Amino acid sequence: MQPSRVKHTKVHKGKVKAVASRGTKLSFGSFGLKSEESSWLKSNQLESARRVMAKFIQRGGKIWMRVFPDKPRTARSPELGMGGGRGPLSHFVVPVEAGRVIFEIDGLPEATAREALRLGAHKLPVKTRIISR
Q1: What's the rounded Cα separation, in Å, for the pair 93 and 2?
Q2: Which residues cross the membrane (predicted)?
Q3: Contact, 1 vs 47, CB < 8 A?
């Protein structure tokens, strides 16, 4: 999961330590997964969480992903010495602040939706909370 095109392949690292001011309420679904701490989420972590939730609900409800990994990260191989500039593009991340809604689910009974979100939360490296309308 990555953007189709990026204007700049290498961006500043930045810090993620604030509390979210936008994206904190449910917009689409009846249940959601909200981050309790700030961190970077990789695209493969988000995709893994989305897949396990989709597999659990099968054809029932609908899942919305409220964040998208659009920040490129670079990495150099571990055996390289100092110097030589910045490494090549490695993967994409999304900076998620505490309080940000990551996933939303609708069209399912409460027990099923909560279990699907719980399974998805296990795939993410941040503490999360399940919220409802």
Answers
A1: 9
A2: none
A3: yes
Per-residue model confidence (pLDDT) at position 28: 94
Distance (Å, rounded) from C-alpha 107 to C-alpha 32?
A: 12
Task: Look up the pTM and report it.
Answer: 0.89
Mean pLDDT of successive 10-residue segments in the chain (133 residues)? 87 89 93 96 96 92 94 91 90 95 95 95 96 92
How far apart are alpha carbons 120 and 29 in whole angstroms?
16
Residue ranges and CATH numbers for the domains of the chain are 31-74+88-132 (3.90.1170.10)
Write down the pLDDT at residue 5: 87
Distance of alpha carbon 73 from alpha carbon 32, whole angstroms: 27
